[in-house]
Amino acid sequence: MWELPPLLLSTRLQFLRRPAARTCMAGYVPAEGGRGRGARYPPLSALVVSAIAAFSAVIVLAVVHSAYDATVSRTRTLLGHNLEPTPWHPFPHAKGRPPARAALRCAPSVACLPPLARPRPPPPADAANASSSAAPPGIGKRRQCPAYFAAIRRDLAPWRRAAGSRGGVTRALLDEARRRASMRVTITGGGRRLHVDLYYACVQSRALFTVWSLLQLMRRYPGRVPDVDLMFDCMDKPAVNRTEHGNGDPAAPPPPPLFRYCTTRDHFDIPFPDWSFWGWYLPETNIEPWSREFKSIKAGAKATKWVDRVPTAYWKGNPDVASPLRVALLGCNDTGLWRAEIMRQNWTDEAKAGYQHSKLSSQCTHRYKIYAEGFAWSVSLKYILSCGSMALLIDPQYEDFFSRGLDPRVNYWPVSRVGMCESIRDAVDWGNANSAEAERVGRRGQRLMQDLRMAAVYDYMLHLLTEYAALMDFRPVPPPTAQEACEGSVLCLADDKQRRFLEASAAEPAVDEPCVLKW
Ligand SMILES: *[C@@H]1O[C@H](CO)[C@@H](O)[C@H](O)[C@H]1NC(C)=O
Ligand SMILES: *[C@@H]1O[C@H](CO)[C@@H](O)[C@H](O)[C@H]1NC(C)=O
Ligand SMILES: *[C@@H]1O[C@H](CO)[C@@H](O)[C@H](O)[C@H]1NC(C)=O
Ligand SMILES: *[C@@H]1O[C@H](CO)[C@@H](O)[C@H](O)[C@H]1NC(C)=O
């Protein structure tokens, strides 16, 4: 805590110890009052002592206040207080000081005190074999992981290759990755404690929700999340250029390992589930945690059967996200010529109307739904696929963790960027000529999303972290500047709306084993 100078402290204590009544009465003793130098409590010296004491008290308060002030002006939070936005992707950010509540009550030393009774974790007998492909006998059939989990191996290949000779994920590589990271996450204590070292602010509440996602993983699989040390960038665009880092040449030194929400075939960034699975609330968006949102979209999709769906393609979104693709898409807005209806989502208006018209569940009215990337990957992909309409994906450049499960002409229809409007028209014309097959493509896309339950999202996180941890050549230790994060500290920082989503997306300890990876 704050250190008081010892001198002031002792003066203050003397002042407190002195009986207050006597000090006061001293002023009212008329007989000896005038010249009482020889008295035990001469009024003059009493006055001097009181004055010094009062003065000291003021100084103590000032010291305490300035110590408090210094603490608050240094306290970094997951909401970006006292942090600059990332230099590689600046955004408007009033870094500000945390409110007193966040600085004091939400401090991990207060908010992360262990609960009186911890739920007893299941024996971790199987933990070391979480990734093993053999089902333990007697436990019954374990689910096999969806096929796209195999991408974990591809994503981590550069470090696995190096694991023999150069030591896989090293501290030096992590230091290199730090230059493009907004935070460092350290999980220790047998997967029970999480520390975060904050370097830059993340846009909106991404950092808060991403740390929450990891805490929920720890809650779902108590004691089974491996100890890890990882660098995370919460901004959109991948940063680890493949050609600049050896292009997969086994002789080249491995690239810096950097986690983020997406990657491309030309990058080595490691994709991790984005915040929107736990909900995305802004003044402008109101997207529920994924488990709820999928249910409601699926119910909405049931309301309009395929035959009753409008036989054209539909897109509704925000074209103003520095995406040339979405701007170009506005040019295809002609149901006669291009069979496409392109609607501008004005979030300001939507918010005023209580999101009644932007409800994702009421947007499953067309047989074809267009997906156009925004500034990078877009969280809208999963909502579009959930409708059961045939998804027309305009040549995606970015991959998130599950989009590697997409299969052209099987669970979506590819549309090219070049001659985009013609390509949309041709896809719609094909679909209307082959209605049953188009419907099946739509259903398989919806099925992919159905299988993307939160259980699968957590399993992906667990397997990814387990495989990554196995490549680390050092024991993770939280750096001295890191602060602990726990459910209490995250909930405490959140505003009411954010807290509603966080609480709604809280995980329960798993009853099933994680799915089995098949490489
Ligand atoms: C993991 O599996 C191997 C064999 O597949 C076994 O020898 C080992 O004991 C298992 N470890 C644990 C912790 O169950
Ligand atoms: C990667 O770096 C190379 C060489 O600097 C450059 O030509 C290429 O455009 C970069 N790729 C990406 C995807 O940024
Ligand atoms: C697209 O066309 C429709 C119908 O003509 C119109 O209502 C809508 O505003 C247009 N969309 C945009 C983004 O201009
Ligand atoms: C959205 O609507 C508001 C008024 O409701 C208007 O001021 C704003 O310019 C609109 N935004 C766009 C991008 O059209």
UniProtKB/TrEMBL annotation:
<dbReference type="InterPro" id="IPR051091">
    <property type="entry name" value="O-Glucosyltr/Glycosyltrsf_90"/>
</dbReference>
<feature type="transmembrane region" description="Helical">
    <location>
        <begin position="44"/>
        <end position="68"/>
    </location>
</feature>
<comment type="similarity">
    <text>Belongs to the glycosyltransferase 90 family.</text>
</comment>
<protein>
    <recommendedName>
        <fullName>Glycosyl transferase CAP10 domain-containing protein</fullName>
    </recommendedName>
</protein>
<dbReference type="Pfam" id="PF05686">
    <property type="entry name" value="Glyco_transf_90"/>
</dbReference>
<feature type="region of interest" description="Disordered">
    <location>
        <begin position="117"/>
        <end position="141"/>
    </location>
</feature>
<feature type="domain" description="Glycosyl transferase CAP10">
    <location>
        <begin position="224"/>
        <end position="475"/>
    </location>
</feature>
<keyword id="KW-0808">Transferase</keyword>
<dbReference type="GO" id="GO:0016740">
    <property type="term" value="F:transferase activity"/>
</dbReference>
<keyword id="KW-1133">Transmembrane helix</keyword>
<keyword id="KW-0812">Transmembrane</keyword>
<feature type="compositionally biased region" description="Low complexity">
    <location>
        <begin position="126"/>
        <end position="137"/>
    </location>
</feature>
<keyword id="KW-0472">Membrane</keyword>
<dbReference type="InterPro" id="IPR006598">
    <property type="entry name" value="CAP10"/>
</dbReference>
